[in-house]
# Entry
Amino acid sequence: MGKTSLPTGFGITEGMRAWAEQKVPQVDIDKEHEAFVDYWLGHGTKMADWCATWRSWMRRCPQFKGAMRPPDDAEITRLMALYTKAGFRRAFRHETSTTYTDAFREWQRRDAPVRDMSNILNMARGKRI
# Structure
């Protein structure tokens, strides 16, 4: 397969959208797609597989501080209160409520021992960490 320039009207397919929701849920793919198209049209570079190039761009978006969805602070805070009582870790900054819940469920499946986090949580509340 030969290399081609970015096709005119290169859009997000349902498959690409589903992939992004699964692999990079924190990325605002509509905004980032616009930046992707402008970048590659501006450079005129030819690629062998534009969908693969798009996926790579979306994977690197958090690293390069691209268009990110705003975190759902209230929901993450609510979930952390529930999950840390069960001994699970705090949410990472890049996690959405969905990815945090998925990580918690995966952690539960591993039969992890329940830790008493009350002392640590009380210290954190006192220091407002």
Remarks:
- The chain has a mean pLDDT of 82.
